[in-house]
Amino acid sequence: xxxxxxxxxxxxxxxxxxxxxxxxxxxxxxxxxxxxxxxxxxxxxxxxxxxxxxxxxxxxxxxxxxxxxxxxxxxxxxxxxxxxxxxxxxxxxxxxxxxxxxxxxxxxxxxxxxxxxxxxxxxxxxxxxxxxxxxxxxxxxxxxxxxxxxxxxxxxxxxxxxxxxxxxxxxxxxxxxxxxxxxxxxxxxxxxxxxxxxxxxxxxxxxxxxxxxxxxxxxxxxxxxxxxxxxxxxxxxxxxxxxxxxxxxxxxxxxxxxxxxxxxxxxxxxxxxxxxxxxxxxxxxxxxxxxxxxxxxxxxxxxxxxxxxxxxxxxxxxxxxxxxxx
Length: 326
Ligand SMILES: [Zn+2]
Known about the structure:
Helix 2 packs across helix 4, helix 4 runs parallel beside helix 5 and helix 10 (272-283) crosses helix 11 (289-297). The strands form 2 sheets. The chain has a 7-stranded mixed sheet, sandwiched between helices. A 4-stranded antiparallel sheet has the order 1-2-3-9, with no helix packed on it. Helices cover 44% and strands 20% of the residues. By secondary structure, the protein is an alpha/beta fold. The longest helix is centred in the N-terminal third of the chain and has 34 residues, at 84-117. It has 12 helices and 11 strands. It binds zinc ion.
């Protein structure tokens, strides 16, 4: 998979410009809240950089990178529901690559999870932030006997899910009041990094799961290759959307504190090198002699080996978390 297949560079850069404008229009920095580390509660942190008016710090105990201070929950809920950049993301950015993403991302994801379910039928499965409902559609195709619930706060996207004949709870997971103890599996893709209060999210997820129920999340690893190399220039470091960058160790700590057992924490990402190379070759980024040399002088075989090494050593910025409610 290549970055350009799932993310048009121009559309993405246009989107990022719009986001910067929406930050000024929707978020009032005087109302931002200063927090302790979202994983360990630690108060000792070091300032890393400032981006679009957001300060990012690293916790000195667990190395979680996070935006601090950050907007309150209600302001972010409004931002996601109403901002023009969200609308652009849906219509101009996501729509044109939706079918490519179905093939490259959602189908493999559905296959992985269908294999994990191992033919067990009549399960209740919820996808948090289900967007266009493509993942649930694909999983339903592979495992048709289950009950599928799309948990999606945006009205526009919730309606798209209804049109696909999915059961829909049009809200954030944090606000779901019914269905306690009903879920065998909750999934949330590229979600944890967005949450103003990840501990609250995990507590609510735990309430909705049956005992022994599974949580399957993907998120950004703050100790992942392209993020560490590009740092504040990384497009993944994108306020106000991406507020939390856990790492394999701190993700485990967070889950265990909230009554989950970590079944798998891996980094199966495929794009780290491609993202760094794209920044060097297309946007003139200087990321040091070694990586500049690899980008300019080495062949695709070398780069594939590098990406495989990144994956295997849990150094990709794309992290997968599977956890069981104890
Ligand atoms: Zn910490």
